[in-house]
Each structure stands twice: as structure tokens, then as C-alpha cells.
Amino acid sequence: MLPKTASFSFELESYLCDFNGRATLPLIGTFILQAATNHAQKRGFGFDSMSASGMAWVLSRLSIEMTEYPEHNSCIRVETWVEAVANYFTRRCFRIINSNEITLGHALSIWAAIDLNTRQPVDIPTACPELKDYVETDKSCPISSIARIPPLKEANPADAYIVRYSDIDINRHMNSIKYIEHVLNLFDIEMFNQNQIRKFDINYLAEGIFGDKIELYMQPPAGTSEYLVDSRKGADSVCRSRIIWQTIDPQAIRSASSQQQ
């Protein structure tokens, strides 16, 4: 049997990074999902085995906390393990580590398994009996839970988009990272120039499919660094996001850059 925990390495080429030369949150999210995919695939409960049984994993909630974003031309590792398995959900954890073995951040994800024909949840212990053998009980994640993001009390229209070809993944619904990209595009470039995202939570509530019009509503931050965004299809929310920013310390960035060099 393979180890319960595995880590996967990723190179940060310059073309993948933002105008500050750092990894973007969607890129970190992409690496996280790739690590989850590789971990599950190698252990017999990944895409191939699930699709052969008429099922698929769908992401229900995701929380990413970053203390530092890696820079271009660096290498990071994403460590991942399954923390718990319940009837309809699994909890998967992640740790993001740089080449100096410094922890840059953590993530926690909640997954459901659905029947591809009915689009309804399936009982995970029954559908994937081998998964219980890979539950890691000797590790912990500092992100203990992902809070439900409630409906927004006050919301102003912020943007809208039509789900197109480049938004759709192999399961024929909108890719999890695309929701994040559209939410972050609500903020102007100065926000990213002076701040970085410390914590990002997203609750996935419904599927976006090709041709859907998704309207984004933002709740005013009320003087805090926390923003709430509701992505809606008509009157129904497809996802809700919470973004917590922190001011960038230029001296810390220079110090991190010199360490990587």
C-alpha cells in the first residue's frame, strides 16, 4: 500500500506568475487540485476509477490560507492527505512548502461524490471502500473547518459573465478554479499591488454549465479587509466566496526574494 500522505512538486515558470512575479491564488489552487488528483489516482480512487463506475468527485468547499506567495523560477511542493471520510463528504488537507522547507500555506477541501447520470450524491464508503485505508489520523491541518458563507445581507451588482468553452472541465461543468478567477477579477490592479490574499474561502453550491449567465454581487467590506462575493445564476447562488486581504510588507518580500536566490 502506498503512503497515506504524498507530496508533489511544481515549477513556477515566469509566465505562470502575476505582474509582481508571484504565484497567483488561482495558480496555487490549480496546484492543490493537481496534487489531490494525483494522490487519488495513484491510490485507486481517482478520475479513471470513478468515471468507470459512473461517478465523479466534485469540490464542495475550499479554504486556502497563505502567509507567503512563492516567486517565479522557484519550486514548491504540495503535500496532501485525506483527513476524514463520512457518508457523503471527505476532508482533504494540503500544505504548501518552498524549496527551503518553509511552510507557505495550508488548504482544506471538502469533496462529494456524485452519480454522473443523476447528478446526485452517492454514499462514499460504499462507492469507494478502499478510501478508508488512506485516512491519515497522525497529521493535522491548522485550518480546522470551512465555515458556511451565508447569503449576503447587502449586495451590489459587481460584474457578470457567460460560461464559455474555456470555463468548462472534463465533467462538463464550470471548473472550480474559474469561479475563483472571476471573483478575483472584481478587484483592481492596485488592490493586488498593495495587498495579498491571506485567506480565501469558497462554498460551491450549484453547477455552472455552458451558456449560463453568472452575475456577481459584492457585499461592502464595512471598513474591514474581508469581502464577500455571491456568484448567482438567476436567483440561485452557484458559489459564495470570502476574501481576506492583508497589506504587503515590501521588506518581507525583498527578504523572501533574497532567500530564494
What would you note in describing this structure?
With 261 residues, this protein is α+β, with helices and mostly antiparallel strands. It has two domains: 1-146, Hotdog Thioesterase (Thiol Ester Dehydrase, Chain A), CATH 3.10.129; 147-261, Roll (Thiol Ester Dehydrase, Chain A), CATH 3.10.129.10. The protein has helices at 25-42, 47-52, 124-127, 176-184, 189-194, 250-260; strands spanning 6-12, 55-66, 74-85, 90-98, 103-115, 156-162, 195-204, 213-219, 226-233, 236-247. The longest helix has 18 residues, at 25-42. It is globular and about 50 Å long. The relative contact order is 0.16. Mean pLDDT is 92; it is low at 254-261.
Task: Supply database-style keywords.
10 strands, 6 helices, 10-stranded antiparallel β-sheet, alpha+beta, disordered C terminus, 261 residues, 2 domains, Thiol Ester Dehydrase, Chain A
